[in-house]
């Protein structure tokens, strides 16, 4: 049996151990691995893709007084001059956020009225308009009736009139909506409306705001049902 050279064996084992450690740390390259420059690619700023062609948006307010075409598509032509005057007096006025707020107000008022939520109504309405809603709620309670209303959809909100009288801006909005609304008596019988029928409604609501005020909120001052 040949004599074993112990130092040589130990050196060979040490070399194998170093090779194993390098392999475990660095790994091996195969056809599915990405080169280093591809791994770093997500960290680099890629050129922006070409923008899709979209119609230009109107600026927040008309560039100059009398720039009525900015209101095209959101308001009746009869309202353009009034909107010009409001925008000139309040540089923060813009149709898109106004109509978004009007839609939210419509939804909140309709549901608050059905739920007898006078606190919410008082915050959203001018005193005269609130008095009319409050009287209707009291009459409903006196009769023992309970109302349930659901706004299924607000299909459109379009400005029909606008004017500036002194510091008071006034804008009217025509809402085209779908509602489910019904009223039950104290015995639970439906006395008005239907719990299953979706009914189309067209209402014109008028909102006021003092343009000198730091409060950006508009108040509902009048409602009129067309359908």
Describe this structure in words.
- The longest helix is centred in the N-terminal third of the chain and has 21 residues, at 6-26.
- The protein has 227 residues and is an alpha+beta fold.
- The protein is built from 6 helices and 5 strands, in the order H-H-H-H-H-H-E-E-E-E-E.
- Strands 1, 2, 3, 4 and 5 form a 5-stranded antiparallel β-sheet that branches.
- It has helices at 6-26, 36-39, 80-89, 95-114, 118-124, 127-142, and strands at residues 146-165, 168-184, 190-193, 199-210, 219-225.
- The chain has a domain at 70-225: Roll (Nuclear Transport Factor 2, Chain: A).
Structural class: alpha+beta
* Number of DSSP helical runs: 6
Globular, elongated, flat, extended or rod-shaped: what is the shape?
elongated
What are the segments in which pLDDT stays under 50 over at least 5 consecutive residues? 4-66
Radius of gyration: 34 Å
Number of strands: 5
What is the helix/strand order? Answer: HHHHHHEEEEE
CATH architecture of the domain at 70-225: Roll
Q: Write down the CATH class of the domain at 70-225.
A: Alpha Beta
Amount of beta strand: 25-35%
Mean pLDDT: 78
What level of helicity do the residues show?
25-40%
Output the CATH topology of the domain at 70-225.
Nuclear Transport Factor 2, Chain: A
Largest sheet: 5 strands, antiparallel
């Amino acid at each position: 049996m040949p004599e074993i050279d112990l130092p040589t064996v130990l050196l060979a084992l040490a070399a194998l151990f170093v090779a194993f450690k390098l392999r475990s740390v660095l790994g091996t390259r195969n056809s599915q691995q990405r080169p280093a420059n591809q791994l770093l690619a997500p960290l680099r700023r890629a050129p922006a893709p070409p923008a899709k062609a979209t119609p230009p948006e109107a600026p927040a307010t008309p560039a100059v007084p009398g720039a009525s075409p900015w209101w095209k598509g959101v308001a009746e032509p009869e309202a353009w001059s009034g909107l010009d005057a409001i925008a000139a007096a309040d540089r923060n006025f813009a149709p898109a956020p106004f109509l978004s707020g009007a839609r939210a107000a419509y939804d909140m008022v309709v549901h608050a009225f059905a739920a007898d939520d006078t606190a919410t109504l008082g915050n959203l309405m001018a005193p005269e308009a609130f008095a009319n809603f409050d009287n209707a709620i009291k009459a409903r309670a006196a009769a023992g009736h309970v109302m349930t209303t659901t706004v299924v959809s607000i299909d459109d909100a379009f400005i029909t009139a606008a004017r500036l009288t002194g510091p008071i801006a006034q804008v009217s909005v025509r809402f085209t909506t779908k509602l489910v609304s019904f009223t039950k008596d104290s015995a639970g019988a439906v006395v008005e409306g239907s719990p299953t029928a979706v009914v189309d409604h067209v209402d014109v609501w008028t909102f006021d705001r003092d343009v000198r005020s730091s409060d950006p909120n508009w108040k509902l001052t009048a409602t009129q049902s067309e359908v």
